[in-house]
């Protein structure tokens, strides 16, 4: 018997609504924002990510480890070039260091690395 259920990934950031809006657009998930500085996105199957405001937030520095990434999100795309164009249009940054051929590394609006992957 499980002790808990419905895990939720919570991501620290300086602006929860902005980050939820970005990931909501990336995944086409529903965005919800409350009055307490908390935002989340929910997929059609009930998957959820939440975003919480952190004062004096320091984004990770990748690939260095002075400020480690601690976690990141990989999302699958059918075509890397099309996916890249779409996320750049959402205002993300493509990282200058690209260590692979089957994925690309970007920084979300709060500076967290995330990858578009094709395989």
TrEMBL record:
SUPFAM superfamilies: Glyoxalase/Bleomycin resistance protein/Dihydroxybiphenyl dioxygenase. It holds the Pfam family Glyoxalase_6. Residues 9-117 form the Glyoxalase-like domain. It comes from the Bacteria. Transmembrane segments: none annotated. PANTHER family: CONSERVED PROTEIN, HYPOTHETICAL FUSION PROTEIN. This is VOC family protein. The lineage of its organism: Bacteria, Bacillati, Actinomycetota, Actinomycetes, Micrococcales.
